[in-house]
Amino acid sequence: MRMRPLTRADRAQLAMILEVSAYPKPGNVDRCHDYETTRLEHFLASAILARPALEAAERSEGGPGALIHQAVECTSGHRGGNTHFGAFILLIPLLMGGDIPGATRVVGSTTVDDAVEFYRAFGKTEVRVIQGHELDVHDPSSIMEIRSRGMTLYDLMLFSAPRDMVAREWINGFEMTRRGADLIHAAGSGQQAVVEAFLGL
Amino acid sequence: MRMRPLTRADRAQLAMILEVSAYPKPGNVDRCHDYETTRLEHFLASAILARPALEAAERSEGGPGALIHQAVECTSGHRGGNTHFGAFILLIPLLMGGDIPGATRVVGSTTVDDAVEFYRAFGKTEVRVIQGHELDVHDPSSIMEIRSRGMTLYDLMLFSAPRDMVAREWINGFEMTRRGADLIHAAGSGQQAVVEAFLGL
């Protein structure tokens, strides 16, 4: 039977469920390993619940900051803490831009409003933040500081890139994302392809 | 953070992923067991891919037969054979009707066209059919036979009910579906609730 055409949102959701199910991924949640409070089911539910934000990103309805914020709000209905915040930071520009060159254009055109929305989103996650950070996401004055410095979301990622491999993707043209995709293709796209890519990165 | 309102399609997808992940479910695919050619990933992908048909059912766009057919077509993109055909036969009326009394009204109002669409859907699945069955889904004359007898989809289910526990649900007011939901609630909706319901049915 002919397959229905997949949307970008479908592909993003398939990537999220295949990634988390792939086993073994030492140190990560996978089909056979949970964290104490974040389980496989939380990741799977998060992939389902993210749908409206992924669809909005595919239609470029709003900037990357607001769309990441929407994705965080969509997926806050489970009690497993942070599941896909890092994934959304990468997936939203990819959904908007359609591919890595497109995503690179999207992140290069972010605004101060994107930075503010991103900070609001970050404050709603349970991602651990290094104490005493100059721009603390739980400190409302950080948003004033971002505005007064005129920092875009790209500037924020540039600022975080030395310590954060997700932020680094925004700066270096999604280098590890590209390498991961190449490793999956090289592994033949079978059941073990995600694991081989994970171990090879 | 406040959870976004869940649609019926969201709830159906969450049910599908939580059901298949729940472990242990002796004899079924679960988090730790695959069939030889149908794996956990096929069920998870099927839950994602079904989305357009589930949304259409929530809006009652079309009859139950056409919507089951759409769900089968949506989910035909993986190579794991049949994953959710039985689930769709139950979920589509529930999505259309909103609850069990509503679903019971939906199945009671099916038409001959619903029966024909259902047969077309059935022929596209890899569900095993008993050989020599009077209305073989792979025999085009079955559809003529359905039309000449004026059989509705409800009539077809009535015909199959003695041998098929999914068809039986249509006839008896979703008795086992109700019992499953009650068992899940009684088990407290935690991680083991699906397993307890499965074993208790």
Would you write up a description of this structure?
By secondary structure, the first copy, chain A, is mainly alpha-helical. In chain A, 61% of the residues lie in helices and 0% in strands. Chain A is built from 12 helices and no strands. In chain A, helix 3 (51-58) packs parallel to helix 5 and helix 7 (112-124) crosses helix 9. The first copy, chain A, starts with 7 loop residues before the first helix and ends with a helix. The model of chain A has no long low-confidence stretch (mean pLDDT 91). The A-B interface holds A 1-4, 6, 10, 13-14, 17-18, 21, 31-32, 39-41, 44-45, 47-49, 51-52, 73-74, 76-77, 124, 191 and B 1-4, 6, 10, 13-14, 17-18, 21, 31-32, 39-41, 44-45, 47-49, 51-52, 73-74, 76-77, 124, 191.
Write a concise synopsis of the structure shown:
Two copies of one chain form a homodimer. Chain A has 201 residues and is an all-alpha fold. Chain A has helices at residues 8-21, 40-49, 51-58, 64-74, 85-97, 100-108, 112-124, 141-149, 153-160, 165-171, 175-186, 193-200.
List the helices and strands and how they pair.
The structure is a homodimer of 201-residue chains.
Chain A: H1 8-21, H2 40-49, H3 51-58, H4 64-74, H5 85-97, H6 100-108, H7 112-124, H8 141-149, H9 153-160, H10 165-171, H11 175-186, H12 193-200
Helix pairs in contact in A: 1-2, 1-3, 3-4, 3-5, 4-5, 4-7, 5-6, 5-10, 7-8, 7-9, 9-10, 11-12
